[in-house]
Design goal:
CATH architecture: 4-Layer Sandwich
CATH topology: Metallo-beta-lactamase, Chain A
CATH superfamily: Ribonuclease Z/Hydroxyacylglutathione hydrolase-like
Order of helices and strands: HHHEEEEHEHHEHEEEEEEEHEHHH
Bound molecules: zinc ion
Strand content: 15-25%
Largest sheet: 7 strands, mixed
Strand order of the largest sheet: 1-2-3-4-5-6-9
Number of helices: 11
Number of strands: 14
Shape: globular
C-alpha cells in the first residue's frame, strides 16, 4: 500500500490538494464558493491521476473529486465512480496504464457530481449500475443548496438499478453492491470486492476528515452513524482494505475512528443544542483540540457543528 499523504506531496502541497478536493466535493454548486473556483475544480488541465494498487484486482485512482475504485482482469475493466467529465481522458489513460481491456461497468456509489460527473462520457461505452434513488435523482431536476440543477445528460443515467443489493460477477470475483439507506444521501451503496478483500464505501466514509451529510437529499446524521455501525458489524476478512469517498486509503480502523469521532462530537454538541444554545455560540466554543485533524476546507469544524446542530434542533422542535 502506498502511503497516500506522502504520495500527495510529490505533486503539490497537501493543503492545496485539500482545497481542491473541497471544491470538488461541493458538487459543483455552493453559494459560498466563487464560480471561478468551481470552474477551476472541474477543469481537468492541472489534475494528475494517481494510481495505487489496493489488493487483488483492485486499484484506487485519485484525481479531483471522489476516489475511484477500478477492477482490472480478464473480463475487462469495472469502475466505481468516475469523478468529473473533463477528467475522463486522464482517467481513461490511467486505467489503460494498468490494463488495456474494455470498460464494461461503472458502479455509482451515490448521485453527487464529484462521483458521477464522468457518467455521460463513460455511459456511452459501459453499463452504469446504481441504487434506484441515484437514477431518480440524476434523471430529474434537483435543488442543491438553493439552486436548481438540471437532469444529467441521459447517457449518464444508470441502466441497471436495484433497491437493496446487487452482485456483478466479474474478473473472477463477486462484486457486491449493498444499499445502506439515509446516511450520506438516500441512495448510497457500498461496494465489496469479495475476492480482493477491498471495500469501497463511497461517501459513507470520509477517511480522516469530518463527513459531509447531505441533509437535503435524504442523508441523516443518525443514519450515517447507523451505517458505520452496520459496516463494522459485517463479517469482513482481517486484511480488508477500505477506500473512502474522500481521504486516504484505510482499513476498518479508519471506519471505527470516524464512528468514534462522530459519537464523541455529538456527545459534546447535542446537550448544548438541547439546552437551547444558539448555533453561533456553540460554534464559538468549538470542539476540543483533539478534533482539529478532522477539520478540512469543505467540512470545517464550524460546518460539522452545524450538521449536528441542525439534526438536534429539528428533533427538539418536533
Ligand atoms: Zn457525496
Amino acid at each position: 500500500m502506498v502511503h497516500v499523504a506522502t504520495a500527495i506531496s510529490e505533486h503539490r502541497p497537501a493543503h492545496f490538494r485539500r482545497t481542491t478536493a473541497a471544491i470538488a466535493c461541493a458538487v459543483g454548486i455552493h453559494s459560498t464558493i466563487p464560480l471561478v473556483s468551481v470552474a477551476r475544480a472541474q477543469d481537468g488541465r492541472h489534475v494528475k491521476i494517481r494510481t495505487t494498487h489496493v489488493a487483488g484486482h483492485v486499484y484506487m485512482l485519485e484525481g479531483r473529486g471522489g476516489n475511484i475504485g477500478v477492477s482490472v482482469g480478464d473480463d475487462g475493466v469495472l469502475m466505481v465512480d468516475d469523478e468529473f467529465s473533463p477528467l475522463a481522458p486522464k482517467i481513461r489513460a490511467a486505467i489503460a496504464h494498468i490494463e488495456k481491456g474494455p470498460l464494461r461497468f461503472v458502479l455509482n456509489t451515490h448521485f453527487h457530481g464529484d462521483h458521477v460527473g464522468g457518467n455521460p462520457v463513460f455511459g456511452t461505452e459501459a453499463t452504469i449500475i446504481a441504487q434506484d434513488n441515484v437514477r431518480e435523482r440524476l434523471s430529474t431536476l434537483q435543488k442543491i443548496w438553493g439552486k436548481t440543477k438540471e437532469p444529467m445528460d441521459k447517457a449518464g443515467w444508470p441502466v441497471i438499478t436495484f433497491a437493496k443489493s446487487l452482485s456483478v460477477h466479474f474478473n473472477g470475483e463477486e462484486i457486491r453492491m449493498i444499499h445502506l439507506s439515509h446516511g450520506h444521501t438516500d441512495g448510497d451503496a457500498i461496494v465489496y470486492f469479495t475476492g480482493s478483500h477491498v471495500l469501497h464505501m463511497g461517501d459513507l466514509l470520509f477517511s480522516a476528515r469530518f463527513p459531509y451529510i447531505d441533509l437535503e437529499h435524504g442523508g441523516t446524521l443518525e443514519g450515517y452513524q447507523h451505517n458505520l455501525d452496520t459496516v463494522l458489524a459485517m463479517d469482513f476478512p482481517d486484511d480488508l482494505k477500505v477506500i473512502g469517498g474522500h481521504g486516504p486509503l484505510t482499513t476498518l480502523e479508519g471506519v471505527r475512528a470516524l464512528r468514534d469521532m462522530i459519537r464523541d462530537t455529538v456527545a459534546i454538541v447535542r446537550p448544548a443544542v438541547e439546552a437551547g444554545q444558539s448555533l453561533a455560540s456553540i460554534q464559538k466554543k468549538g470542539l476540543p483540540a483533539r478534533f482539529d485533524p478532522w477539520n478540512w476546507d469543505f467540512i470545517t469544524t464550524d460546518r460539522w457543528i452545524e450538521t449536528i446542530y441542525k439534526t438536534y434542533s429539528e428533533q427538539s422542535a418536533n
